[in-house]
């Protein structure tokens, strides 16, 4: 079913038509200063008319008979809900993690939690309902320093290192139907007060076809995007909102919620989509229209690249931070492939195992030296990568780290023996209880991995890049029952 996108800001409590939410005001001023001092690339220029990313007029966005319409027909007008966002950087709810040359973080660093000052908030006492919490959603923020959970009552935000619950918002359910408290998707925007929420569970807080923009300083939704079918996922950048439906993806400008681009995909019930986060470069990856195909959008250079990554359907993929490297896994789950997003070439192939598995999560390290993988087999694998993300597109590294990936000792006759015997295997592993789904990322401390489970488990582990083998568990918590930490 075709989707429609619309924006409607919630009623202004001050009934002042010129009112601008204090939540977003700061970001616009900083953005404007940045634009004046350092003009942005093509992909972040301000659109004065509704057009697609390649400069063509988008009749679908301007034709009143089209299922897609421009929510702000006046290109000079900015929705009051997001006006503050253009004037200043989002106010942060958490400080940036302290680092030592980009990797280490202080063990005794403190994190300040955010508490709502709105006495009329719909947030209820988190201890008022003693019944068990049902976890509906789990995701990292863009720098993997925090993670968010959606529950049948609301959502919670946690810091990874040091582990700590930052805040929670439990909604007062109405006993069923919309408004019941369930949040099925939570997308953070780095460490600021703006989040994107989608209802979920048996009693969703919001309709499943809407993306709600939540301002935690006001403890309320300040805007929404509405569609004709259920939302499968949301991704945020500082300049873009990406909404994933079953067979469509919509890209909006964050400043004024103008529709910039729409993409058709093969059936995508898991809401697969990933975007790069480096300023000045916007790369988006999503399923293509064919089984096993991925589509790569390079918005800065206005190029689209299709990659036939696998014979089976795509199960999972991940981008390096700069968008140069793409890791993909199919529904077979035996191999993970690394591609150059610039030209679509296959750079490396690593083997998770010999039997089929469902890959839940893939993540690059900040320098793209390592790749971590989780699956339903209960083992987290760390692979060494031979390709330097920074030189992709020019020349490949000719001297990989000898400890990067364990290759079979029979690789010298790989032309004779089956491919399995010359496979590249993981450097380090960590065993987990089977029966739960886990997502993974690299920690801010060097050679550490963070593992989150839908059973409420939080692990932080360390691997030895030289000797490899079993990872060392540094920390464990149950974030649904913090008192159970040990």
From TrEMBL:
Alphabetical list of InterPro entries matching this protein: PROPPIN, WD40/YVTN_repeat-like_dom_sf, WD40_repeat_dom_sf, WD40_rpt
Pfam families xref list: PROPPIN
Single GO cellular component term: phagophore assembly site membrane
Keywords associated with the record: Repeat, WD repeat
Comp. bias (Polar residues): 59-80
Keyword Repeat in annotation: yes
Region named Disordered: 1-128
GO molecular function: phosphatidylinositol-3,5-bisphosphate binding; phosphatidylinositol-3-phosphate binding; protein-macromolecule adaptor activity
Protein name as it appears in the record: Uncharacterized protein
Organism: Erythranthe guttata
């Amino acid at each position: 079913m075709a989707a429609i996108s619309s924006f409607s800001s919630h009623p202004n409590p001050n009934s002042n038509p010129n009112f601008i939410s204090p939540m977003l005001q700061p970001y616009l001023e900083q953005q404007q200063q940045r634009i004046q001092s350092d003009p942005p690339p093509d992909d972040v220029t301000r659109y004065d008319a509704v057009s697609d990313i390649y400069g063509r007029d988008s009749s679908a966005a301007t034709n009143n008979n089209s299922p897609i319409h421009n929510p702000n027909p006046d290109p000079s007008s900015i929705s009051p809900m997001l006006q503050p966002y253009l004037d200043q950087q989002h106010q942060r709810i958490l400080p940036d993690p302290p680092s030592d040359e980009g990797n280490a973080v202080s063990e005794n660093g403190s994190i300040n939690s955010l508490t709502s000052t709105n006495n009329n908030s719909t947030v209820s006492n988190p201890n008022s309902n003693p019944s068990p919490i049902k976890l509906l959603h789990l995701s990292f923020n863009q720098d993997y320093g925090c993670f968010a959970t959606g529950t049948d009552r609301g959502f919670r935000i946690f810091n990874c290192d040091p582990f700590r619950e930052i805040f929670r918002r439990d909604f007062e359910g109405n006993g069923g139907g919309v408004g019941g408290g369930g949040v099925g998707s939570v997308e953070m925007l780095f460490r600021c007060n703006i989040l994107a929420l989608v209802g979920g569970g048996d009693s969703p807080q919001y309709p499943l076809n809407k993306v709600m923009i939540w301002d935690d300083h006001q403890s309320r939704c300040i805007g929404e995007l509405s569609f004709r079918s259920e939302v499968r996922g949301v991704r945020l950048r500082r300049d873009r909102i990406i909404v994933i439906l079953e067979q469509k993806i919509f890209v909006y400008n964050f400043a004024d919620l103008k529709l910039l681009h729409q993409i058709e995909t093969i059936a995508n019930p898991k809401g697969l989509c990933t975007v790069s986060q480096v300023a000045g470069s916007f790369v988006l990856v999503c399923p293509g229209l064919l089984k096993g195909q991925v589509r790569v959008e390079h918005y800065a250079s206005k190029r689209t690249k299709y990659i036939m990554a696998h014979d089976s359907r795509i199960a999972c993929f991940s981008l390096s931070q700069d968008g140069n490297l793409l890791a993909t896994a199919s529904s077979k789950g035996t191999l993970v492939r690394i591609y150059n997003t610039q030209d679509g070439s296959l750079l490396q192939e690593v083997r998770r195992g010999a039997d089929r598995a469902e890959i839940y999560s893939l993540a690059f390290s900040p320098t793209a030296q390592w790749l971590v993988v989780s699956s339903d087999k209960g083992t987290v694998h760390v692979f060494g990568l031979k390709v330097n993300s920074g030189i992709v597109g020019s020349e490949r590294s000719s001297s990989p780290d000898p400890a990067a990936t364990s290759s079979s000792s029979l690789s010298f006759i790989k032309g004779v023996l089956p491919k399995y015997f010359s496979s590249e295997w993981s450097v380090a592993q960590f065993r987990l209880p089977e029966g739960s789904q886990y997502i993974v990322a690299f920690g801010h401390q060097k050679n550490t991995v963070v593992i989150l489970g839908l059973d409420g488990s939080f692990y932080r582990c360390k691997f030895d890049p030289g000797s490899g083998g079993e990872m060392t568990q540094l920390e464990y918590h149950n974030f649904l029952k913090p008192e159970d930490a040990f």
